[in-house]
Design brief:
Elements: H1 26-29, H2 33-43, H3 49-59, H4 70-84, H5 88-102, E1 107-113, E2 116-123, H6 125-134, E3 137-140, E4 152-159, E5 165-173, H7 178-192, E6 198-201, H8 205-208, H9 213-217, H10 219-229, H11 236-249, H12 256-263, H13 286-296, H14 305-332, H15 342-350, H16 353-368, E7 370-378, E8 381-389, E9 395-404, E10 409-412, H17 416-420, H18 425-433, H19 470-488, H20 493-513, H21 523-531, H22 560-568, E11 573-575, E12 580-582, H23 591-632
Parallel strand pairs: 3-6
Antiparallel strand pairs: 1-2, 2-5, 3-4, 4-5, 7-8, 8-9, 9-10, 11-12
Length: 633
């Protein structure tokens, strides 16, 4: 083959790139499906392109083995956002609509005002199964900064049979007015069809700001209120008496916020719900906040709605994996049972591990910290007076337990079974006295049982992050086989080289048979696949604009108590100036350093004054000498 030179442009002339800089060539900077998929998967776990590139360099043995630079990885993230762009709201509606059609028992509701998406609510089959099993108590609390449009994220949270957070559904809403929450709750009930027995939500943040700093700083008051309010065994009348004594003792009867919060005590103090079954499963919205933090680990304020939905699926899979792990632990391991009591052994076979440990604790405390002081019998029902002691065996309460030996019916004045769903120590004390060796079926609610959920809940097809299409399965198996072969041939370079030669032969064969790059490897086609949407959708629904919510301020106010707790939780560090372990300063702002600086400054001032005085004295002396000379002349 011959070539003929027609023209020479010297401006295009440059030195050839050496072998040590091949990673910067145009060919080596091109990133394909594997790299883009890697960047995308990490972004769903709130890992940016820079760290993604660093991880690739570490995994592949250096940057010279990685296709693309950090800038190329950043551009890949940018390309996804540009691809979504104005199609964002339309894509999420189309995705959810497709799921409601193709996935079994998937519910999706949305509302558009004008052309803007304002509200969406969704719940899949697993969420509905969890709600059917654990619907007694529900909590929801809005959270912010999960997407670039400032839509407010509201997940609905419950407690499962391992006492872990479980999600019953989720929503994105435009604002926090009454109409928005009314729409949301209507769609929730339409989806789940049954109301919960108890609903918890947070108090308005504006009320929290009404608490004075002096009151918050009084840790003794906080401890006293907590002991009074969260006491599992207290009655409403006792609480009201103790509250009055506490307020009078501290001269807080005129405190506005305490007066307001006490006036609505029936809405938040647990003892007023003691007759409502399962009232103690969730006492505050702390579980909602825990659930919110789980989702915010994956999400970012810069996410589009499509990216937020993908991140939500990743976080939800992690929550459900925890539930599966605890199910496996319960079914495959045996807990410790020091006493091996019949009641204890029976409980270990029916409850989940978490609940068994709590029931076991009640059985042992019924044996060691409770005793019968007197008993009587009326119409076949025995009444036992139980002394309830603390760890120092001091009697702190007395309870009456009714027991019917014919049908093993038991009821306690503390209403432990009603509140938490398993028998209290007082009932177990009576069982031991009457030689009851099995927990009656009537006191074994389904929500604490091992197999309360159907098997399909943990099916791989219900996992959002699982890729189970035929091509993905084949690719995973291929990489798995190659990794296993490479691991088996470690420290055998000749054998590894032989394997490498075989792989090169396979590559040459593939590239010979498929000599052209397929259209599916184009940048746009890859992004289509990663996002799960085509770029040809007709846009009739647009993202919301102009949202201003409570969470959109630049920085929230931090209360005095939170500052104190943050300060107390700090680990003491050695200050090298004062040689003390402290939490309130370091070697740069130590009082000793400040004192030294002030002393040095004072010394400098004195030195300057002394120099100035010396200079002045010299000048005066010279002037005086000159004056004498002139006078003598």
């Amino acid at each position: 083959m011959r070539f003929k030179i027609y023209d020479f442009v010297d401006i295009h002339t440059h030195e050839l790139i050496g072998p040590n800089a091949m990673e910067f060539t145009k060919k080596r900077r091109k990133i394909g499906y594997s790299e883009r998929n890697f960047i995308h998967k990490l972004s769903l776990n709130k890992i940016g392109p820079n760290i993604a590139h660093n991880l690739q360099c570490s995994l592949k043995g250096g940057s010279h083995n990685v296709n693309g630079t950090k800038t190329d990885f950043q551009n890949a993230t940018r390309d996804v956002r540009l691809f979504i762009s104005d199609r964002n709201a339309q894509m999420i509606v189309d995705t959810m609509t497709s799921r409601s059609v193709n996935l079994p028992n998937f519910s999706f509701e949305y509302k558009v005002v004008g052309s803007e998406l304002r509200y969406i609510f969704w719940a899949d089959d697993v969420s509905k199964c969890n709600y059917d099993a654990f619907k007694e108590v529900l909590g929801f609390d809005a959270t912010y900064s999960t997407n670039k449009y400032d839509m407010i994220f509201v997940p609905f949270t419950g407690v499962d049979h391992h006492k872990k957070c479980v999600t019953f559904g989720a929503s994105l809403i435009y604002d926090e007015i009454i109409e928005s929450y009314k729409w949301l709750l209507d769609k929730f009930l339409k989806t789940h069809k049954k109301q919960p027995k108890l609903v918890l939500t947070d108090q308005d943040a504006a009320v929290k700001q009404a608490i004075s700093g002096d009151l918050l700083a009084n840790t003794d008051l906080r401890v006293s209120i907590h002991k009074l309010v969260w006491n599992l065994f207290i009655t409403p009348s006792t609480l009201e008496e103790q509250w009055k004594l506490l307020i009078d003792d501290l001269n807080l009867s005129d405190h506005h916020w305490l007066t307001e919060i006490y006036a609505i005590r029936e809405q938040w103090v647990p003892c007023y719900f003691r007759e409502i079954q399962w009232c103690c499963l969730m006492k505050t919205t702390s579980r909602c906040e825990s659930s919110n933090s789980l989702f915010k680990v994956n999400t970012s304020h810069a996410n589009t709605l499509v990216q937020f939905l993908l991140c939500f699926g990743t976080a939800l899979d992690r929550q459900r994996k925890t539930q599966l792990e605890l199910d496996i632990e319960t079914s495959t391991t045996t807990p410790k049972m020091p006493e091996k009591l019949p009641l204890e052994i029976h409980a270990s076979k029916i409850y989940t591990r978490k609940i068994f440990l709590e029931v076991q604790k009640e059985i042992y405390r019924g044996m060691r910290q409770c005793y019968i002081t007197s008993s009587s019998e009326i119409d076949g029902v025995k009444k036992f007076n139980i002394a309830h002691t603390n760890k120092r065996f001091k009697v702190v309460n007395n309870y009456v337990v009714d027991f019917n030996s014919h049908d093993t019916t038991v009821s306690c004045l503390c209403m432990g079974f009603t509140r938490i769903g398993y028998l209290c120590r007082h009932a177990f004390c009576v069982f031991r006295y009457n030689q009851v060796e099995l927990i009656p079926d009537k006191y074994l609610p389904a929500r604490w049982m091992r197999n309360v959920l159907p098997d399909r809940v943990h099916d791989i097809s219900n996992r959002y992050s699982a890729e189970d299409d035929e091509e993905s399965v084949i690719r995973r198996n291929m990489f798995k086989l190659l990794t296993e072969c490479a691991n088996r041939l470690r420290h055998k370079p000749d054998c590894l080289n032989s394997l490498l030669v075989q792989l090169k032969d396979i590559k040459d064969k593939v590239f010979k048979e498929f000599s052209f790059e397929p259209p599916c490897n184009s940048k746009r086609s890859i992004i289509n696949e990663l996002v799960g949407q085509l770029d040809t959708v007709d846009v009739t629904i647009k993202p919301p604009t102009g949202i201003r919510n409570k969470g959109s301020c630049t920085k929230r106010q931090v209360g005095v108590v939170e500052k104190l707790l943050e300060k107390c939780n700090k680990n003491p560090r050695l200050c090298h100036k004062c040689n003390k372990y402290v939490i309130d300063h370091n070697s740069h702002n130590c009082e000793k350093v400040k004192a030294a600086k002030e002393a040095a400054a004072d010394a400098a001032v004195l030195a300057d004054a002394a120099v100035a005085k010396l200079t002045t004295d010299r000048f005066v002396n010279r002037y005086a000498t000159r004056s004498k000379r002139v006078a003598s002349t």
